[in-house]
Amino acid sequence: MQFIIFGSPGVGKGTQAKIISEKLNIPHISTGDILRKAIKDETALGIKAKEIVEKGELVPDKIMGGIIHDRIMDDDCKNGFILDGFPRTLNQAEVLDEILTKINKNNLIVLKLDAKDSVIINRLSSRRGCSNCGAIVNLADLKEGNKCPKCGATGTLFKRKDDEESVIKNRLEIYEKTTAPVLEFYKERNSKVIHIDGSQSVEEVTNAILEQI
Ligand code: AMP
Fold this sequence. Notes:
Blueprint: E1 2-6, H1 13-24, E2 28-30, H2 31-40, H3 44-54, H4 61-72, E3 81-84, H5 90-102, E4 108-114, H6 117-125, E5 127-130, E6 136-138, E7 157-158, H7 165-179, H8 181-188, E8 192-197, H9 202-212
Parallel strand pairs: 1-3, 1-4, 2-3, 4-8
Antiparallel strand pairs: 5-6, 5-7
This protein binds adenosine monophosphate.
């Protein structure tokens, strides 16, 4: 089955996509992770994307369409996948549609995580990533200083550059203006859209998703 996990930055898409991917044994495709890795590895893509990502702006659709096309064509996507961070524009939704039609996988389920702005801003400003295991953690959940609760490494938790307050504002504006209309695109096409209350705990959100799919 093909899933899109959709919602505002900081609503918990990455956290849930990782869990659902493990539970259903389908790959988690995060375009943000793909871009961050390219930036870290200083590939041609990374060099092009660095400034755009750090400012919280959108990488051009043409580049993103190519990335997603190649990834979906990989062998491990044969039984489905969960897309996180794509599509972010109507144009990207159309590109995805073309790819899925070509490979006969148009039966998409959209998991829409909902949460109030105050919850989202709070989560984004206290979000940290672990450079050792890739876990996404919230400062409020740390029990032992700067130690990753998932892998136990110390000193590996970092704040994403685009989680700085000035950039968060830009990302939320872009989401409202450019990305939110993508949900209407799927509703108009009668795709299955499941709304989940993303302000609940991680476990509660996961359970709500699993109950409904
Ligand atoms: P994310 O981890 O999904 O929040 O993505 C981090 C950043 O990567 C975004 O703020 C954008 O700069 C870039 N990005 C990720 N996915 C896309 C996409 N589908 N289209 C354009 N830019 C993207």
